[in-house]
Amino acid sequence: MTPKTKEPRKTKLLFFLLSIVGLILIALEIYLNSQQKTLCQNEGCFLVHIFDTYNLLNYIGFLLFFYLTIVSFLDLLEVKFIWLLNLRTYILALAIIVEGYFIGFQKWILNEYCSYCLIIAGLIFLCFLLDYKLPLKEKTLFSLSESSKNTSIYKIAFLGCLSLFFATFLVKIPFKPLEISSPVLIYKKNCPHCEEVKKFAKAHNIFLKLYDVNEAISLIKLLKYNNIPILIYKENNKTLVIEGESSIKNWLKEKYGIEEKESLEREYKKSESTEIKRIKKEESQIKIESGNLFKKNDNTSQGACIIDQQDTCK
C-alpha cells in the first residue's frame, strides 16, 4: 500500500472515530435528560436549554452523527455508495452554517458558552475538514457522471458560517443572565397579579428572587411570553417557566407542600377547638359538682356531728 493510499484511509478512520464519539456523547445526553440529568452543568448549558423550545436539538444531532457513522463505516470498508458520500458533504455544509448561528447566539446574545454544545460543534467542524481532505474524484449527487470534486460547497459553507456568526452580533439583544438557584419572579410595578404572588410567597416564607420586567425584557421576548408575572426555576437540570398568578401559586403550593401544611393546620385547629370545648365542658361539670358538694345540708344525717358545733351533739 503506497503512502498516497494510506493517507485517505487514515482520514476515513479518523472520520469514523469522530462520528462514533459524537454519536455516543449525544446518546448519553439524551439518556441523562430522560433521568433528569445532563452532561453539561454550567450556566451556559442551562441557558441554551431554555431556548431549545421543542427539545429537538439533541435528537437532530443524534440523527446527524448516526448518518455520519454509517456512511463513514461503509467508506472505510470501501463500499462505494458515492451519492451517500456526496449527501454527507451537503449535510455537513448545512450543519456548519447552523453552528455559526448557534455559536454566535452564545457569544453575542447569551454571553455564556455551553461546553457540551461547543464540543459537538468542534466534532462537526473536524468532520467537515476531513471530508474536504478526502479524494478529489466524485460523482455528482443527482447524476452518475464523474467530475472533479466541487470545492465551492466548502467555501460557501464556511462563509455562511462566518456570516451567521457575525449577523447575530448585528442584531443582538442585550441579555442579562438570571441567577436561578432559587425561584425567580419577573414582575412589573403596579401589576396587581404580581403583587398577589409576592404577598403569597411572603405569607408562606418562600424566598423569590425578584427581577423587574425591564431587566429581563430580552429574555421574555426571546422566550415569546407576553404576560407577567413569570416564574422561572431550574429543577433537576430542567428549566420551568410558569406564567400567570394562579399557575404560579399552584406550583408554589405543590413545590413547598403548602396545601398539605394548611390541611394539617386546619386539622390541628379543629382538634384543638374540640379539645378546648371538651375541657370547658369538663370544667363546667366540675364546678357544678363542687357547688353541690359545698351546698348547705339542713337535713344532717343522724349519728353525725357538725364540725365546730357549739351545742351538744345529739
TrEMBL record:
Protein name: Vitamin K epoxide reductase domain-containing protein
UniProt cross-references to Gene3D superfamilies, sorted A to Z: Glutaredoxin, VKOR domain
Keyword Acetylation belongs to the record: no
Organism: Thermodesulfobacterium geofontis
InterPro entries, A to Z: Thioredoxin-like_sf, VKOR_sf
Keywords: Membrane, Transmembrane, Transmembrane helix
Coiled-coil stretches: none
Keyword Transmembrane helix carried by entry: yes
Transmembrane segments: 12-32, 56-77, 89-107, 113-132, 153-175
